[in-house]
Amino acid sequence: AAPEPVKADFTNSTNVQADPFEFPVETSWQSGDARVFGYDGNVYLPFTVRSADPSAAARIKAVLTANLCRN
Q1: CA distances (Å), origin 20, targets 23, 29, 55
Q2: CA-CA distance, 65 to 7, in Å (whole number)?
Q3: What digits encode the pLDDT tens for the residues 45-64?
Q4: For residues 25 and 38, what is the distance between their CA atoms, to the nearest angstrom?
Q5: CA neighbor of 57 nearest in space, from 18, 17, 15
Q6: What is the pTM of this model?
């Protein structure tokens, strides 16, 4: 089964709207008989967070979930 994608949960934030992550293009390499896809080194997942109502205070509280591996 494929791993779960990176998720950001902003449900405990106040007055916040978040855009989806912008995933970088994966690289691919041969591993035995299989072609695998993924990232090597640091990976940055930029996303935009903005105030839903610019005239009101905003509070950002996020829970990020990601699958990581190190070979």
Answers
A1: 9, 27, 23
A2: 5
A3: 888 889 999 999 999 998 98
A4: 9
A5: 15
A6: 0.59
